[in-house]
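dumping this here before i forget
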Amino acid sequence: MGYVTAKTTWPTAVQLDASVKELIDLFYTLADDKSSDAGPRLAAEVFTKDATMGSSAGTAQGTEAISHSRDNAWNIVASRHHTVLQVFVSDSAGRDLTLIGELTQVFNNGKELTAQFVAHLVVDAESHRAGKPRLSLMQVFADSAPFAAAAKA
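structure:
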């Protein structure tokens, strides 16, 4: 696993496939990636064609919207580091997941903030059966007020 999930506590009631763990790690690695191909890679490598990705920044649905979801992600942020702390599973197939994570952001104004977030993820059943899991849903829940305050110059 990568730096995002190196210390993650994974569910023990249901064993998640390594490919699902790798998918979670890839999502957050790309979310921390400043390169121009991060959004297109999210759309192609992490999500289904009709997936929904939601956060306090808004909702992106479908390949085109998800591909462009990172276009303005770095306007006020110098660096971002996600860490997945714990993953919970709510179904016997290991496809309906909730996770707790931590995000550290350094803003262009030099301020730094670390806060926790929760995310609900649904792994698409068909892609999972095919051995290349993709997310059909990711909804992130976080208090954006501290981040908005820290972003102010």
